[in-house]
Amino acid sequence: MKEKLEGILKKAKAEIENIQTLALLDEVRVKFLGKTGELTQILRGMKDVPAEQRREIGTLANQVRESLEGWLSEKWAMLENAKLLADMEKEKVDITEPSRGVKRGALHPLTRFNNKFMELCVEMGFTVIQTPEIETDYYNFEALNVPKNHPARDMQDSLYVTDTILMRTHTSPAQVHAMETLKPPFKIVCPGRVYRNDNDSSHSPIFNQFEALVIDENIGLKDFMIMVKEMAVRLYGKDVKMRVRPSYFPFTEPSIEIDATCQICHGKGCTLCKGTGFSEFFGGGIVNPAILEMSGIDSTKYSGFAFGPGIDRSVMVTNKIPNIKYLFRNDLRFLKQMR
Ligand code: DAH
């Protein structure tokens, strides 16, 4: 029995010393100290050892077990440490390696233009609202004084979802939503995507507008012009010149088209402004009293003005973009030039 124990001690020592991985070391532990391990079996067989030897053999067996456990845990710690060092070596980062350059993103030119205009409107006291991109015929046309079969509908060739539901053709339905829900006086602006059955180099089925509406007592064309001039000055600087032309929209009376100094040639005249020195700023006018009444606003007490610029054309012109589709393709080669 004594020799057996000494044999185990020697064998285990040699095996533990040679082992190089944690998994194999665990196998050695099981082989000697596991449930059916060599040492475990000896310890279990103690009852068969003659009584006079039991004490001596018992002490020896316990010493062997302690030695084995000590070596195993020492080796375990050593292998674990070696593994950690090896992993760290593998994951090493060379902090002296030169940077490959940080690629920074940028806002889309339409977003930049829109943000600029919205900031300006907020500074001037407007509340920014959002209304649905899918509208009923009522909000998109009827409530804006464009009854069914009216020729004015031809100005906005439309994308219908059903006979009475369509993709909004302009942001003007926001006027109706605002008049129905807000108590005058108020100033709202609604930016967003609009949809028309249009498709060529300067027209896209999706484009962007925003709608501005001011409702108050005793306001008219003069107030409108003062506000528009102030907007143009804040956008283009104090030397900006304005020009007003008569126009027609079913929802305003009178309707006007406002031009501002061409921002490409600064008024000198260029191909983009066709030599006039002016480019279109936006269309608008005095809200037709019929519209106020339809949305529940007393037109004998309140009046208002509204305007609705498209922003894609401005972004195209100021960035000399030849085709409106570039704004929607998300081609990085194009977008990088627009940063
Ligand atoms: N909704 C018009 C369009 O898409 C633009 C517009 C014109 C909006 C005059 C207005 C307005 O609020 O008063 O062509």
Structural notes for this entry:
This protein has 339 residues and is an alpha+beta fold. The chain has two domains: 2-91; 109-337, BirA Bifunctional Protein, domain 2 (2-Layer Sandwich), CATH 3.30.930.10. It has helices at residues 2-18, 22-33, 38-44, 51-90, 109-123, 137-140, 173-181, 221-236, 289-294, 312-318, 326-329, 332-337, and strands at residues 127-128, 134-136, 165-167, 186-195, 206-217, 242-249, 252-261, 278-287, 302-307. The strands form two sheets. It has a seven-stranded mixed sheet, sandwiched between helices. It has a two-stranded antiparallel sheet with strand order 2-3. A hairpin with a 2-residue loop joins strand 6 (242-249) and strand 7 (252-261). Helix 1 (2-18) packs parallel to helix 4 and helix 2 packs antiparallel against helix 4. The N and C termini lie far apart (86 Å). The structure holds 3,4-dihydroxyphenylalanine. Residues 170, 172, 211, 249, 251-252, 283-285, 306-308 line the site of 3,4-dihydroxyphenylalanine (DAH).
Offer a concise description of the structure:
The protein is of the alpha+beta class. Helix content is 42%, strand content 19%.
